[in-house]
Amino acid sequence: MFSHRTTYRVIYGDTDNMGQAYYGNYFRWFEIGRSEMFRFLGLSYKEVEDNGIFLPVAEAHCKYTTPAKYDEVLVIETSVDPSIKAGIKFDYKIYHEDGKTLLAQGYTKHPCVNKDGKVVRPPAFIKKVINKTRD
């Protein structure tokens, strides 16, 4: 199964007074992962929205294993769950820079919504990109 990896360095503003990354930032890092995966596959989130489709988060989950700390480089691994037919489910794993130490894992689920806020089936241009992850 296809997965995409991108990196992110934990900045001081990502941490709490214990020097660990604030838990809510993991969801921001998930967003970085899915945005960069789409871009890598040839379609930016901006292009999705320019085509009248929006991908709001309908469900999100994160299981924390090891805390990320200031100035560490994270590896964000993103993949698409191929079993989902309506909308898109992204799966994430966040690793320490070594690519082996798992810090957190989770998922987000996104319906496709048009400009009027109506849930619609994933359009062909999105299906084309998602199908690249199934090769």
Task: Compose a concise summary of this entry.
With 135 residues, the protein is an alpha+beta fold. It has a single domain (4-132), classed as Roll (Thiol Ester Dehydrase, Chain A), CATH 3.10.129.
Protein described:
The chain has 3 helices and 7 strands; from the N terminus they run βααββββββα. Strands 1-3-4-5-2 form a 5-stranded antiparallel beta sheet, with helices on one face. A two-stranded antiparallel sheet has the order 6-7. The chain has a single domain, classed as Thiol Ester Dehydrase, Chain A (Roll), CATH 3.10.129. It is 23% helix and 31% strand. The model has no long low-confidence stretch (mean pLDDT 94).
The CATH class name reads Alpha Beta
Strand-residue proportion: 25-35%
Reported CATH architecture: Roll
Output the number of helix runs. 3
User: Please, how many domains?
Assistant: 1
Q: Provide the helix percentage.
A: 10-25%
Unreliably modeled segments = none
Mean pLDDT: 94
CATH T-level fold name: Thiol Ester Dehydrase, Chain A
The SSE string, one letter per element, is: EHHEEEEEEH
CATH superfamily: Hotdog Thioesterase
Alpha-beta content class: alpha+beta
Distance between the termini: 7 Å
Rg calc = 15 Å
